[in-house]
Amino acid sequence: MNNIEIIIPTYNAGKKFDKLAGALLQQKNIVPRNIRIIDSSSADNTVNIAEQAGFQVQIIEKKEFGHGKTRNIAASQSRADYIVFLTQDAIPAAPDTIWKLCLPLIENSSIALTYGRQLPVSSIGILGNHARLFNYPAQSLLKTKKDIPRLGVKTIFCSDSFAAYNRRKLLESGNFPDVNFGEDTLIAAKFIKDGYAVYYNADACVYHAHSFTLSEEFKRSVVIGKLHHDYQSVFDSFGTVNGEGIKFVKSEIHTLIAHKCIKLLPIACIHNFVKYFGYRLGKSDVL
C-alpha cells in the first residue's frame, strides 16, 4: 500500500483540535504514527491531545514557524509517497476523507497536487459560507496548462488547509517557497508550468470556514495583494484576477437575494470594498 503521511502545523488549536484528532483516528488506511503535528510551542492542550492520540509531535519555537518554510522542511523530512497538509481547524467529513483525497494521486501519475472541498459550517453565517461554496463547488476539476486560457488564475487556485501532494514531484519542482502566505498557490503554479496537473477533488471533504471581521478582512487582502506584487510575473502568466472578483460579488448578491437576506447586502458591499482596497494597497506595495 502506498505510504501516506498527514502533517498538521498547530498553535493553540483549542477545543476543536480534540474533534480533529478523533476524526483522524477514524480515517481509512491511516495509522496514528503517520500523523505528524508540528506545534509552534502551544500554551494550551494541543500537544497533550496529539500525544494521547499517538501522533508524532514535533515542537518548534513560535518564531521559527512560516507557512512556506515549515511545510518545506516537513516535506523534506517526510519519507512518505504522499503527504497531506491539514490546518488545525479542518475537520474530515467522513472516515474515508483522506483516502479519497489521495486516491487521484495514486491512480494518475500526471497529478502532482489534489485539494479537497471545504464545506461550510452553520455557525459562520451566510456570508462566510458563501465564500466556501463559491470557491469549492460540488464538481471536481482537473486543471492543466491547457486550461490557462479558460480558467486564468483559477488554474492555480488551491488550499493547503486540505491538500495532498506527490512528495517526489513536490521536491523535484523545488518544494514550497519560503513565504508566509500563498505557498500552496505558488507551488501549484510551478506544477502547472512543469506539465503536471492540479486536481480539485470535490469528493473529499472537510468542514472548514471562517468569519472575518473587517479588520481581519483588510489585513488578509493586503497580504494577498503583496503576494501578487512580489510574484507578479507568476500571476501575470495566468491572467488577471479582476474577473474572479466580479464573479464572486455577483454570486454573493444572488445568494443573499435567493435566501431573502437582502438586509445583509450593505454589509457584504462594505466587506467587498475593504477587500478590494486592501488588495490594491498590498499590490501597490506602499505599506
From TrEMBL:
Keywords from the UniProt entry: Transferase
One biological process term in Gene Ontology: single-species biofilm formation
GO molecular function, one term: transferase activity
Pfam families with a match to the protein in the record: Glycos_transf_2
Residue ranges occupied by any Glycosyltransferase 2-like domain in the UniProt entry: 6-170
PANTHER family: GLYCOSYLTRANSFERASE (PTHR43685), O ANTIGEN BIOSYNTHESIS RHAMNOSYLTRANSFERASE RFBN (PTHR43685:SF13)
Protein name per its UniProtKB record: Glycosyltransferase family 2 protein
